[in-house]
Structure formats: structure tokens, C-alpha cells
């Protein structure tokens, strides 16, 4: 009589509760925008550094170690962007005369093309400052976005406003923690020159009514040298240690509702200080397309030379294989 082997029993695993999606903000419930910053065509060394600065600025929801190959075209990036939840592309390119920055919404556009009139790298901004400030956790949270001078009159300014507002995660003013607001991206539109000033700042709060010496002592935990002093009051009131009223400006203060540091306590006022960390750019909007680097031109500056086009952008390409994804993305 034939024998039947007992089948190996497989342990039953109770299905776990559905986890919240990683691409959705657990506070606002909105989808978290994610970005790719890459180049089209070959870039000089300075623009390569500008690309690295833009990636760092877009942290934490960007691919900081995105790897590019010469054979990669726009469709390759688009195929990888879908599974990773990437919503925006920032693309740098260079003609014989000027560099360009294209900001596009995936997967179907629109696409805004800017001519970079002037730019300064983050390292240049840091070297120009006497006391540069870049804390370790400065890029842990997304920056705030502030738009000035755009108004709501012209259509191309409306689209520019919407694009930059959606490129960073939204915040809930009722639940946001001040300790998470450490950076700000400022875009100021000049109606006369029709140029956009692009700035990136770090935010820090300083208590009002506290001398600079005491503030630094509490923040940095530095033990002062008191051997030549008779009393602790001599350390506080000694000449040259900073004004007691430093930063006491009502227009630059904020009332704190919760603790945000060792010096800034609840129910107190603190002065808001901005320090530029770069990169810095002066942009000119020259074209808006309703598709992803293609489609109908909604807005165009007829007097501007056309920026370089990718030969492979309008051509169909094969899907990116798993091996290609591993080459482009650094785990």
C-alpha cells in the first residue's frame, strides 16, 4: 500500500493591521511631495555643485544620492518616480550662454522653465559669513515656503505660486511644533524687473531680554572662567559681554506656546533670526508648458532663446529594469 508523506505544516500568521501609507502626512492627511533633482545634458562643475545644493535644500523628501547615467532619459526617471511616490522634478540644463532650471509636476505636468540669471553656491554663502551656522539636524525637516510679490492677477504667476506651494509639504498651524521649523525658502517676485529672487535661510530663536553671554552659556554648555571674578554678578554685568536688550524688537519677536529649547521657554517672547545658508538664485520665468517638458505653451517669453531640448524626451523608451533602478538609486 502506498505511503503518503505528511505535508509540512505552515504556521498561520495573523494579518497585522493596515499601516498608514508612508507617502501621507499623519498630521494633515495630505500626500507628502517628493522630488528628484537631476541634470539634463552635461553640466559644468559649478552647476553640478548647485545641483547638490538643491538636493540638500529639498531634504528630507528627496533622493540625495540619485545616480545618473548618460544613457538615462526623462522617461527613465519617470518610470522610477512612480513606485517611489515622486511628485516633482527639478532639472538643471546649460546652453552655450545660460543655465536653466525646469520645475515639473509628475507625471503629466505642468512644467515651468526658468533662466538662471545669477546664482551663488552654498559654500560661497558660508565663506562670506563671519559665523556660519549649519546645525546637524538642520535638514531633518522640510523648509517653510514664503512667496512675496506674486499676487493673484496674472495666470503665469498663479501657476508659479501653486507649483512652489505644492513642492514642499503643507503644515498645520494648529499642531506644528516650532522646533521643527528650522529653515525657510523665500521667493520674491520683482514686478519691475520680472525676476524672482530665490533665497534659503536657517531659522533660530533667541530669547528677548537675555544677554548674549548668558544665552551662549546655556546653549553651548560652555563653562566660563570665573577665577578673576569676585562674584557671579560680575560675570553677568561685566562690560563687553553683550547688551541686555539685544534683539528686543517687537516686529521680530514671536510668542512661544511650548518649549522649543533650553533658553526659549513657554509664555515668553523670542526674537526670530534668519541666516542665509544658500543656494541663492535669480530666476526669470520664460516658459510654462501644460505637459511634462512638452505640450501646449501656456506662457512664453518670445524674446528669449529657447533652452536646450533632450533628444530622447519625446521618444518612447523601454521600461526601466530592476538593474537600472539599482544603478540610479543609492539605497
From TrEMBL:
One of its GO terms (molecular function) is rRNA binding. It comes from the Eukaryota. GO terms for cellular component: preribosome, large subunit precursor. Residues 1-17 have a biased composition (Basic residues). Residues 1-26, 297-331 are annotated as: Disordered. Residues 33-294 form the Brix domain. Transmembrane segments: none annotated. PROSITE patterns: BRIX. InterPro entries: Brix, PPAN-like. Pfam families: Brix. One of its GO terms (biological process) is rRNA processing. PANTHER family: PETER PAN-RELATED, SUPPRESSOR OF SWI4 1 HOMOLOG. This is Brix domain-containing protein. The lineage of its organism: Eukaryota, Viridiplantae, Streptophyta, Embryophyta, Tracheophyta.
Amino acid at each position: 500500500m502506498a505511503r503518503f508523506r505528511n505535508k509540512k505544516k505552515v504556521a498561520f500568521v495573523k494579518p497585522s493591521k493596515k499601516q498608514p501609507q508612508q507617502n501621507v502626512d499623519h498630521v494633515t492627511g495630505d500626500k507628502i511631495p517628493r522630488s528628484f533633482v537631476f541634470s539634463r545634458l552635461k553640466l559644468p562643475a559649478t552647476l553640478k555643485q548647485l545641483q547638490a545644493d538643491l538636493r540638500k535644500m529639498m531634504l528630507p523628501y528627496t533622493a540625495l544620492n540619485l545616480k545618473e547615467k548618460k544613457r538615462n532619459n526623462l522617461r527613465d526617471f519617470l518610470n522610477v518616480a512612480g513606485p517611489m511616490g515622486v511628485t516633482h522634478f527639478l532639472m538643471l540644463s546649460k546652453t552655450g550662454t545660460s543655465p536653466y532650471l525646469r520645475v515639473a509636476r509628475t507625471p503629466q505636468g505642468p512644467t515651468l522653465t526658468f533662466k538662471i540669471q545669477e546664482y551663488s553656491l552654498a559654500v560661497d554663502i558660508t565663506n562670506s559669513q563671519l559665523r556660519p551656522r549649519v546645525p546637524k539636524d538642520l535638514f531633518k525637516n522640510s523648509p517653510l515656503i514664503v512667496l512675496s510679490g506674486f499676487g493673484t492677477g496674472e495666470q503665469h504667476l498663479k501657476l508659479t505660486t501653486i507649483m512652489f506651494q505644492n513642492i514642499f509639504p503643507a503644515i498645520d498651524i494648529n499642531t506644528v511644533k516650532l522646533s521643527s521649523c528650522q529653515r525657510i525658502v523665500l521667493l520674491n517676485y520683482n514686478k519691475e524687473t520680472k525676476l524672482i529672487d530665490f533665497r534659503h535661510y536657517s531659522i533660530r530663536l533667541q530669547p528677548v531680554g537675555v544677554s548674549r553671554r548668558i544665552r551662549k552659556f546655556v546653549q553651548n554648555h560652555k563653562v566660563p572662567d570665573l577665577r578673576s571674578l569676585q562674584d557671579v554678578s560680575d560675570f553677568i554685568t561685566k562690560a563687553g559681554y553683550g547688551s541686555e536688550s539685544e534683539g528686543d524688537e517687537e516686529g521680530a519677536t514671536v510668542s512661544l506656546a511650548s518649549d522649543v529649547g533650553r533658553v526659549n521657554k513657554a509664555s515668553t517672547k523670542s526674537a526670530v533670526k534668519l541666516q542665509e545658508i544658500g543656494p541663492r538664485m535669480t530666476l526669470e520665468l520664460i516658459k510654462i508648458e501644460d505637459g511634462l517638458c512638452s505640450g501646449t505653451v501656456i506662457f512664453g517669453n518670445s524674446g528669449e532663446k529657447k533652452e536646450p531640448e533632450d533628444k530622447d524626451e519625446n521618444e518612447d523608451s523601454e521600461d526601466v529594469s530592476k538593474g537600472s533602478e539599482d544603478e540610479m538609486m543609492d539605497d
